[in-house]
Specification:
heterodimer; A: alpha+beta; five-stranded antiparallel sheet; globular; B: alpha+beta; five-stranded mixed sheet; 16% strand
């Protein structure tokens, strides 16, 4: 890689100060599984890397009165194998199985993944359908940002250059809610042909609420509000008949190495129905 | 300007000087005399740079050397004990799971990490665990066979 200086702050506060001191010449590095390839490809060339990997008290998965909280330095593999996650939010454990490969998941962090803003990233859509929020800090204060609306464009998020993610709050879902995720890809861990995350809340046999997010269906992950309107208020059978087509029509995929636009639309149609169906089954058991 | 760095590699404390942008893969190969860890794509796709950090498989081309301080690093050179091959290494030999050998160090370490974490994986779990190690020669058949054999040998020796 090109020469750079590696700063090793002892705390998040110190890291925030370093970010302000070095402004646009510095980038935060945690696991580096997304950032180092960018440096190696010379897409970015920061003079300073501010290392936060290993900072204390940022790797955890805990219950809170409102749900669970995940420290942003928690590695993907911890989420994949956590008994708490598998029990309370199985959608996150199954999503993690397809994030890159095992080696990436052993060193890369969930916070790094979100901050990177990969337009076809797996965690984003899942956190959005779960109504999660991320806590960020900077020298001047802190704020909570909903994951919905966090991702703007290719590798672009709403994060300010002086902000660092510290934890993600995932609220317990309402009663009779189930969520599911599927990434359709050529091989396990590949970028998606298309991915769908869905959270469905039932009222008896009627779909009371639906949150559906598509990835690889636009410039970044896309909340399929029109498909959600199609299913809300309908009985399960009718909703499943219509949701696939609705999502495929709303999606804006573009042709790339993983498939043509037409093929992706077809895949979106099929897996949206499959994911919503899986979310319904989980909602019925909830 | 080089920085002093202390790394624990294959059970030994090693003290070296590193430039801050050097990766663990580069340091293992060029500063520590351990070229068993290979570089291939150097981008995190191929997996030939796989080492174990605290028992977990990690791609060393995507780890800054200084981030590896304080961790237990195991490379392929650290597997054999007293001249005896690790059961996974022996299984690769016995089942002809090596052709050109370039993917082999990373592949073996991924298998070792898998069997340490999950002593009884099924074939699907084995394939998922080595999904980050590409092989251009073998088609993976013999590799999976070798890992299955190592799994069986290791769990038998635990019972015996």
């Amino acid at each position: 890689m090109r020469p750079l200086k590696l700063l090793m702050p002892a705390s998040i506060k110190e890291a925030c100060r370093m970010l302000v001191e070095h402004r646009d010449e510095a980038k935060i590095v945690a696991g580096g599984q997304s950032l180092l390839p960018l440096l190696k490809n010379r897409l970015v060339a920061p003079k300073y890397l501010i290392n936060i990997k290993g900072l204390p008290k940022m790797e955890y998965i805990n219950t809170t009165p409102k749900g669970i909280q995940i420290g942003t330095l928690t590695v993907h593999h911890s989420i994949e194998t956590s008994a708490l996650i598998k029990q309370r939010f199985p959608i996150l454990a199954e999503m993690e199985k397809g994030v890159g490969t095992l080696q990436i998941r052993n060193w890369g962090t969930i916070g790094g993944n979100i901050a990177h803003g990969d337009p076809v990233g797996d965690p984003g859509p899942c956190f959005i359908v779960l109504n999660a929020k991320v806590k960020v800090v900077s020298m001047i204060g802190e704020r909570e940002i909903p994951l919905e609306g966090f991702f703007i464009d290719y590798l672009e998020t709403v994060l300010e250059p002086d902000e660092i993610l510290v934890y993600i709050d995932v609220p317990s879902p309402p009663p009779r809610t189930g969520s599911a995720y599927h990434k359709e890809s050529v091989r396990l861990g590949d970028p998606p042909i298309a991915s769908v995350a869905a959270a469905i809340t039932l009222n008896g046999n009627i779909i009371k609420d639906a949150r559906i997010v598509l990835a690889a269906a636009g410039k970044t992950c896309l909340r399929a509000t029109k498909a959600e309107e199609v299913v809300k208020g309908k009985n399960i059978e009718q909703a499943l008949k219509e949701v696939g087509e609705a999502a495929a029509a709303e999606a804006q995929p573009f042709t790339d190495l993983e498939g043509s636009e037409e093929y992706k639309r077809e895949i979106i149609k099929v897996i949206t129905r499959r994911v919503v169906s899986q979310a319904v089954i989980r909602a019925q058991a909830a | 300007m080089k920085h002093p760095l202390e790394l624990k590699v294959n059970g030994e404390i090693r003290e070296i000087l590193v430039k801050p942008w050097w990766t663990l893969a580069e340091v293992l190969r060029y500063e520590l005399g351990l070229p068993g860890t290979k570089t291939g794509c150097e981008m995190g796709h191929c997996g030939v740079c796989t080492v174990l950090i605290n028992g977990k498989a990690v791609k060393s081309c995507l780890v800054l050397a200084q981030q590896a301080a304080g961790k237990d690093i195991v490379t392929i050179e650290g597997l054999a004990q007293n001249g005896q091959l690790h059961p996974v290494q022996q299984a690769f030999v016995d089942h002809f799971a090596v052709q050109c050998g370039f993917c082999t160090p990373g592949m073996i370490l991924s298998a070792v990490a898998l069997l340490d974490e999950n002593p009884n994986p099924n074939e699907e779990e084995i394939r998922a665990a080595i999904a980050g190690n590409l092989c251009r020669c073998t088609g993976y058949v013999k590799i999976v066979e070798a890992i299955v054999a190592a799994r069986d040998r290791l769990s038998a020796s635990k019972k015996g």
